Amino acid sequence: KRVAILVSGGGSNMVSLIDSMLGDHPARPCLVLSNNADAGGLAKAQARRVATAVVDHRPYGEDRVSYEKQLIDALEAAQPDIICLAGFMRVLTEHFVNHWQGRMLNIHPSLLPKYRGLNTHARALEAGDAEAGCTVHEVTPALDDGPILGQARVPILAGDTPESLAKRVLTQEHILYPAVLQRFAAGVTERIDLA
Ligand code: GRF
């Protein structure tokens, strides 16, 4: 299977995915695409000899349809079987999502269905939760929704800040996302729960 990864930032999840696709793994990376030419993830992909592309959203303004047409063209050129969103900070329209129906995964830094959207760690601390975590799910048109493929949990500790909690969760993201991708690429969609 061929995997395209979409990033906007540092790309630590992207790195964990690329570095997992070795040996008898059923998938290989075919493209890393960013909406942001400055994304740190692009250099990390190039260092791993993975093809990269940039489709900047800014020239398109509010015209999501034209932007996503360019995105789809750039992705289709790499002939991916699976699309992994890994910190891709653009909301995607129903048209784009439906184009990749059943083939697109996302990682979200909360135990969905709790805390869809942004600032998940601050919200978990504010609520006094005892634990937090991350979720990999299939992408459907509703934001941070769609069938859950896996979750990993971490404790919330006394004195945690959004930053300290984010760091603890990110460590688990780097374990969970490759584990789910490997299963998904092999055709397994049964949910896994780590820790
Ligand atoms: C991660 O916390 C991911 O869950 C969220 O955005 C962050 C991306 O980090 N959606 P990175 O670019 O993978 O380092």
TrEMBL record:
The keyword Manganese does not apply. Its EC number is 2.1.2.2. This is Phosphoribosylglycinamide formyltransferase. GO terms for cellular component: cytosol. It holds the Pfam family Formyl_trans_N. The gene is purN. Pathway: Purine metabolism; IMP biosynthesis via de novo pathway; N(2)-formyl-N(1)-(5-phospho-D-ribosyl)glycinamide from N(1)-(5-phospho-D-ribosyl)glycinamide (10-formyl THF route): step 1/1. N(1)-(5-phospho-beta-D-ribosyl)glycinamide binds at G11, S12, N13. It catalyses: N(1)-(5-phospho-beta-D-ribosyl)glycinamide + (6R)-10-formyltetrahydrofolate = N(2)-formyl-N(1)-(5-phospho-beta-D-ribosyl)glycinamide + (6S)-5,6,7,8-tetrahydrofolate + H(+). The active site is at H108. The keyword Transferase applies. Catalyzes the transfer of a formyl group from 10-formyltetrahydrofolate to 5-phospho-ribosyl-glycinamide (GAR), producing 5-phospho-ribosyl-N-formylglycinamide (FGAR) and tetrahydrofolate.
